[in-house]
From TrEMBL:
Annotated Peptidase M1 membrane alanine aminopeptidase domain residues: 156-286
A Pfam family annotated for this UniProt entry: Peptidase_M1
Keyword Protease: yes
Domain of life assignment: Bacteria
Keywords for this protein: Hydrolase, Metalloprotease, Protease
Gene3D superfamilies: Neutral Protease Domain 2
Protein name: Putative metalloprotease with PDZ domain
Amino acid sequence: MPENLFQSDSDSARIEINWAAPAAGHIFHSNFGPGLRQKANLTKDMLYSTFFIGGDFRRYSYSWKNQTIYLVTRGNWSSFTDQQVLDILKATIPAQMDFWKDRLDAPFSVSLLPTFEEWTDSSKSYSLGGSGLLNSFISFSSNNPGTELKMLRWLYNHELLHRWIGQTLVNEEEEKQYWFSEGFTDYYAYKLMLRNNQISLEDFLDVINKEVLAPHYQSPVRTLPNSELTQQKFWSDRQYNKLPYRRGLLYALLLDSQIKKKYHGKKSLDNLMKNLMAQAKKSGDFKFNHTVFQDQLDTYLGSAAITEFGRYILHGNLINFEESLPAGLLLETQKDIPAIIISPLANKKKLADLLGK
Ligand SMILES: [Zn+2]
């Protein structure tokens, strides 16, 4: 990295990158698109948020609202087709752009790499992940039967959301705000999928119960105070790593339910999120921190919400959903592990609308 180009974080430099032509049958691609010659005005952070790949990739592109969207991938996928991955992008990008009332102002690129994990009778492992970058996101997935299309759909909803939560709303202290940048991102990934009929009400609750509530309540670090989540712990231990995703998602669900209840369905957590976004877009050096968030809490829910923020996020207490579940949902606790279930009397269509609203 040519770090010496930048005196400070706000410095930008005009950078020109030239690539040699790829070998026959190979392609080159970057977050700037397919061009071999790139000129861009970038800050250091933006330069760190670029990706460049070359080799035996397949490149797909389509046009959406006067911008080109690219997907580059390679290998023979066992669980899905390239077209199915493209279809996820075609559904997800417009849905999220519409939610944030945003638009693409440059080509957008997505890369998907297959990784090898053994999949035999005795050894079944898989993983998938990604990172939101400048006008792009990158992703990888095990190429074995463990990774299903629905996981990729979640991942793409999550990574694309980082364009706003993480990139526009930048954390002031990285892992100290992961409860927001990862937890709220995950909550919105599922909420928007529910709203856009990419998952069913049952899928939505299944995820909350099986992938969030159950593992969270069984985690040895479930009540770790937020201040003790260090970079070192986050990256070295799976339980610490998962903590802000689960805690943040549950807290987002709580706030969303509380705001909907207080405003009789006329407002939701969406309003608070969009307020933050407007604030970030208005000021050039916006950083997301706990003061900024508490101001929003005060606006929507008053001082009691700030006390709860201290209890549930800063101190790490387990969330009490008893009072705050939307009508139609019930809390059922078995062996100290709560699950959110649909009340037998509930109208499922109305409930799905309410949760996705
Ligand atoms: Zn993330």
